[in-house]
Amino acid sequence: MTNHIQSIQRELKNRDLDAVLITTEVNQRYACGFPFTDGFVLVAREKAWLITDSRYIEAARGSVSSDVEVLLFDNAHPKIGILKGLLHDGLKLAAEDRRLSHAEWLGYERLLNMGFVAAGDLFENLRASKDEEELRSMVSAQRISERALEETLQIIRPGMTEKEVAAELVYRMLKHGSEGNSFDPIVVTGKNTSKPHGVPGDSILQEGDFLTMDFGCLKNGYCSDMTRTVAVGHASEEMQNIYGIVLDAQLAGIAAARSGIPGREIDEAARKVIRDAGYGEWFGHGFGHSLGLEIHEAPACNPREKRLMPEGAVVSAEPGIYLPGKFGVRIEDVMILHPDGAEVITQAEKSELKIVGS
């Protein structure tokens, strides 16, 4: 399992911190590779501990690396008591201020009789750049999603509902190795395609309509994300034109994408194409977002993002045009940012509007 203990320890030293208490599942998984603790992960400058209960103790001891000591809590040995035994007065202890509620933050401070140092950005910054093992998991998740799409496209027919198409995608991702959805799939048709985050319902696919499918899966805890818009039966000239504009915008954004520049520059390269075509007001969301253990991570590629994109960031490329009450088009790939450009890991075809169910 992916382990980032040493990276966290280096960051503790850089920030002059002694330890960090990790209470959220996603950051616990990032730290030690084990996702289910119902307890704590504590990382100090030289040591690390995973504190869990009897449901997970065997799996944890059999999977985490030797640089993480696994401790069992139970009724006789409460997890707060074990944690207090690992801490000492004067310790500069960090916690996830961006994840804990105000009540949780104060509650832990009271129980431990120790103040916290806010360090939520520690994990945000570390998780922004993916290592090779993380990238392999994300590529694997992407291949599963693409295989599910390829098979689903073969069975789409007029008369199916949005829910039925969504169910086919989910089933086929699980069949090919998914651990679950990286988010609830967005499958919409007809006028519903103008809703960027529409929810699959009972609307029926009809000839001459768009069908937008935005979905992804998990592999080793890491997300995939992709969107394809297709036409059912046939497509009008206007549908073909809007699809072409969105594709050109996506390709422009990908061509501009690299690490070391603000995310808003990548967004603007794509947005300009749509704006110049006269549809600027109908592209309301950002060009893309980082993803990894979560489907939305930082930094992003949107008009407000001033931060420099880090090398190794995995970012979506998903411009769209949405005409209310009519239809919408979105095309989404995922790319890895390097200093000299972007490496697109999505392989599903998109070069022209695909006609299905004819």
**Named CATH architecture of the largest domain:** Alpha-Beta Complex
Count structural domains: 2
What would the principal axes of the Cα set say about the shape? elongated
Helix content: 25-40%
Class computed from helices, strands and strand pairing: alpha+beta
State the end-to-end CA separation: 45 Å
**Average pLDDT score:** 96
The stretches of 5 or more residues where confidence is low (pLDDT under 50) are none
What is the number of E strands? 19
- Mind describing the biggest β-sheet? 6 strands, mixed
- Looking across the biggest beta sheet, what order are the strands in? 4-3-2-1-5-6
How large is the radius of gyration?
Answer: 23 Å
Give me the CATH superfamily of the largest domain: Creatinase/methionine aminopeptidase superfamily
Instruction: Determine and state the CATH class of the largest domain.
Output: Alpha Beta
Strand composition percent: 15-25%
Write down the CATH topology of the largest domain. Answer: Creatine Amidinohydrolase
What's the tally of helices?
10
- Summarize the helix and strand pattern as letters: HEHEEHEHEHEHHHEEEEEHHEEEEEEEE
Please give a structural write-up:
With 358 residues, this protein is an alpha+beta fold. The chain folds into two domains: 5-128, Creatinase/prolidase N-terminal domain (Creatine Amidinohydrolase, Chain A, domain 1); 132-356, Creatine Amidinohydrolase (Alpha-Beta Complex), CATH 3.90.230. 34% of the residues lie in helices and 22% in strands. The chain contains ten helices and 19 strands. It has helices at residues 5-14, 25-32, 57-63, 79-86, 102-112, 120-128, 132-153, 162-175, 237-256, 263-276; strands at 19-22, 40-44, 48-52, 69-72, 93-95, 116-118, 186-189, 210-215, 218-219, 222-223, 226-232, 288-290, 297-301, 314-317, 320-323, 327-330, 333-338, 341-344, 355-356. The strands form six sheets. It has a six-stranded mixed beta sheet, sandwiched between helices. A hairpin with a 3-residue loop joins strand 2 (40-44) and strand 3 (48-52). Helix 7 crosses helix 8 (162-175) and helix 9 (237-256) runs antiparallel to helix 10. The longest helix is centred in the middle third of the chain and has 22 residues, at 132-153. The chain is elongated, with a radius of gyration of 23 Å.
